[in-house]
Amino acid sequence: MDDNKINCFPALIAQKLNTGFYNHAKVGGSNERIQRTTQNYILMDKKPETFNKGGYLMELEHKCKTDLAIIMWTGMNRLETMEGTRWRTANWKTFKLDVPNDYLPTQDSNLTEENAKDPKYYLYLNGYVKTLSARYNLKRSITGMLATKYFLEALNIPYLFYSFSSKHFTPLLHLLDEEYSEYTNIGWSSYEMSKKEVLRELPFLKQDGFLEITKKAKLPLGRKDHPLEEAHINMADIILGDIKRHGYDKTIN
Hints:
The two termini are 25 Å apart. α2 packs across α8 and α3 (31-43) runs parallel beside α5 (134-154). 22% of the residues are buried. The strands form six sheets. The chain has a two-stranded antiparallel ribbon. Strands 3-10 form a two-stranded parallel ribbon. It has a two-stranded antiparallel ribbon with strand order 4-5. It has helices at 3-7, 9-17, 31-43, 119-129, 134-154, 195-201, 210-216, 229-246, and strands at residues 47-53, 56-62, 69-73, 79-83, 86-90, 92-94, 97-98, 104-105, 110-111, 159-163, 181-183, 187-189. The protein contains eight helices and twelve strands.
C-alpha cells in the first residue's frame, strides 16, 4: 500500500479518532470537483469508507453517515470540464497572470496536453480557459464554497474549511469590492458580496493555508511545493485541535 495514503493528514486524523474516513482528493482536482464530489458522496446510498488497520488501508462500501467534512480548497484557476463521460480538470502547464490585461492568463499560458484525448478538444479548451479571468475564477470558487457550506449546514453535517495555499486568494480579495454589473441587451447593477461579507462567511480565506503553515514551520517540501510526511503530521495535529475546540470529536462514531 502506498505510504502517501497512510501518512496523509486525513488518514492520520482518522487513526487518532479511531474512525473510518474517505479521502476524495485526486491529483489536479479543482474546487468545482470538490463541490461536486462532496455533494454526491453525502447523498449516495452506498458509499466507500476506509479504515486503517495496522498500517494497511481497508476499503468497504456500505451505508455510512458523514460525521464530519474536512475540506481543503485548492487553487481557483483550475476548471472542471467533461469529455464524453469523463470528467477532466483543466490543469495549467504554464500559467502567468496578466494583471494589467483584466487579470486574464497571458497568451503564452497553456494547459497540459493530457487534458484531453481529442487534440481538437484540447485546442478549444486551451483557448477557452484564457477567457476566464482570475476575477471570475475567484467569484466562481467563492460561490462553490458558499454552496458547499450551506449544503453541509442544511444536513447538519459539521465541517472545517482550509485552503491549500492562501496565496491563491488573499492577493485578489480586494477585487470583491469593485463595482459589478450584468449585461444582456441592457445593463443593470449586480448584487455582489463585499470582501468583508465574504470573509465573514469564509474566514479561512484570510488564514494561512497548508503550504504557508508548512513553510513557517520550516518543514520539508517535495516536488512542486507539495508538503511531505512531516507537514502532513503537523497539519493533522492542527486540524485535530480544531476538531476538539469545536467539540466535533464527541459526535464522531
